[in-house]
Write a structure and sequence with these properties.
The complex is a heterodimer of chains A (92) and B (223). By secondary structure, chain A is mainly alpha-helical. Chain A has helices at 8-23, 27-31, 48-62, 79-91. Classes of the chains: A mainly alpha (92), B alpha/beta (223).
C-alpha cells in the first residue's frame, strides 16, 4: 500500500494527473490550471461519468473516502475548490 | 493496405440471436473477447478492436461478443438479467468452439464477472473489477446534477446481481492491469485508463502491449 500523500504539493500534482487521465486532457494544459480555472460545467469532457471516474481515481490515489453526500457541483466548480476538498479530506 | 478479415456473425443468445464481431481467420487459435459493461464498454471498444486486429496479424482469430441489450442487440437492456448475460457469454464461447477451436476468453473490466461458466481453454482478464465498484461508479454518475446510471436503465434484478458479483476462480488464468492500478496482477502495462474517459479514445501503445501479452498467453494455453 502506498502511504497517504501528506504534502500539499503532492495533492496538487495528484489532482492534476487524475484530471489529465480521467478527462483525457493534455497534461500541459492541466499544468496551467490555477485556483480559478472553471472545471465542472466548463469542460465538455467533464460529463456525469467523468464525475464518477474522477472521484474513484482520487480515492484510490490519495487513499481517501468520498461520501456521496459530499459531492455536488460546487466542490468541482473550479480547480481551487476541488483542490481544497481533496486537501481537507487528507487532513482528516 | 487491406486489414485482417472482418465479419459479423450471430449466435443464439439467452433471449434471441446476438452479434459477434470476428477479426481474423477461423483456422487460427480462437480468442473470445468479453467486453467491459455499460459506459465502459463504449469507452474500450476501440481498444478491443485494435487489440483484435493486432492478434489477427499474429495468426489468432478473435471474436467480440455483444451482450443482449447492448451494442447491436435487438433486446431491450431492461429485459436482460444477469443470468442472461452469463448465458450469452457461454453460448458465444460454444458458438466459437463450433466454428473454430475452443476459445481463450479475454475479459475486460466487468466482463470478468461473466466469463467463468464458459467452456474455454484458458482465461485472461484485463483490469478486472468487483461488481460493487462498477455499481457505485454508475450510481455516482448521478451526483453533481448528472444523469443517474449515465442514462442506462438495466432492471433492478440485474443491478442487484452486479452489486453482488465478483470475478470467479478459473484456471488457467492470467490477470493483467495498468501500472497505475495498485491491485495484484500477473503483469502490469503502461497506459491510460480509457474506461474512465468521457471522450472515446484509444492508445496504440497500450493496444500493442495488450496484444503481445495476450498472444503469448494464448500460445501457452494451447488447450
Amino acid at each position: 500500500m502506498a502511504t497517504a500523500p501528506d504534502d500539499a504539493h503532492e495533492v496538487d500534482n495528484t489532482l492534476r494527473a487524475v484530471l489529465a487521465d480521467v478527462l483525457g486532457l493534455d497534461p500541459a494544459r492541466v499544468a496551467a490550471f490555477d485556483e480559478t480555472t472553471p472545471l465542472f460545467g466548463a469542460l465538455p469532457e467533464f460529463d456525469s461519468m467523468a464525475v464518477a471516474g474522477l472521484l474513484t481515481e482520487l480515492e484510490e490515489r490519495l487513499g481517501i473516502l468520498v461520501e456521496d453526500h459530499e459531492v455536488d457541483a460546487d466542490m468541482m466548480e473550479t480547480f481551487g475548490a476541488l483542490l481544497t476538498f481533496a486537501r481537507d479530506k487528507i487532513l482528516r | 493496405m487491406s486489414g485482417p478479415a472482418l465479419a459479423f456473425e450471430t449466435f443464439r443468445g439467452a433471449k434471441g440471436d446476438e452479434w459477434l464481431m470476428r477479426i481474423g481467420e477461423p483456422q487460427g487459435p480462437a480468442i473470445l473477447f468479453v467486453p467491459a459493461l455499460f459506459e465502459e464498454m463504449n469507452r474500450t471498444r476501440a481498444l478491443s478492436a485494435g487489440v483484435m486486429r493486432r492478434l489477427a496479424r499474429l495468426g489468432q482469430c478473435c471474436w467480440l461478443v455483444d451482450l443482449g441489450g447492448t451494442g447491436e442487440s435487438e433486446r431491450e437492456l431492461a429485459t436482460m438479467t444477469w443470468d442472461d448475460w452469463r448465458h450469452d457469454v457461454s453460448s458465444a464461447a460454444a458458438y466459437v468452439g463450433q466454428q473454430a477451436k475452443k476459445p481463450l476468453i479475454a475479459s475486460l473490466r466487468g466482463g470478468a464477472l461473466l466469463d467463468h461458466a464458459a467452456d474455454a481453454r484458458g482465461w485472461w482478464r484485463f483490469a478486472p473489477v468487483e461488481g460493487s465498484a462498477l455499481a457505485r461508479d454508475m450510481a455516482r454518475s448521478g451526483l453533481a446534477g448528472g444523469v443517474e446510471w449515465a442514462g442506462y436503465a438495466p432492471g433492478e434484478g440485474l443491478k442487484a446481481a452486479l452489486e453482488a458479483a465478483a470475478p470467479a476462480a478459473v484456471a488457467p488464468l492470467r490477470i493483467v492491469r495498468l501500472s497505475s492500478d495498485r491491485a495484484a496482477a500477473d503483469a502490469k502495462l503502461e497506459g491510460p485508463a480509457l474506461w474512465r474517459r468521457s471522450e472515446p479514445g484509444n492508445s496504440e501503445a497500450l493496444a500493442e502491449a495488450i496484444a503481445a501479452d495476450l498472444d503469448s498467453w494464448s500460445r501457452q494455453c494451447a488447450g
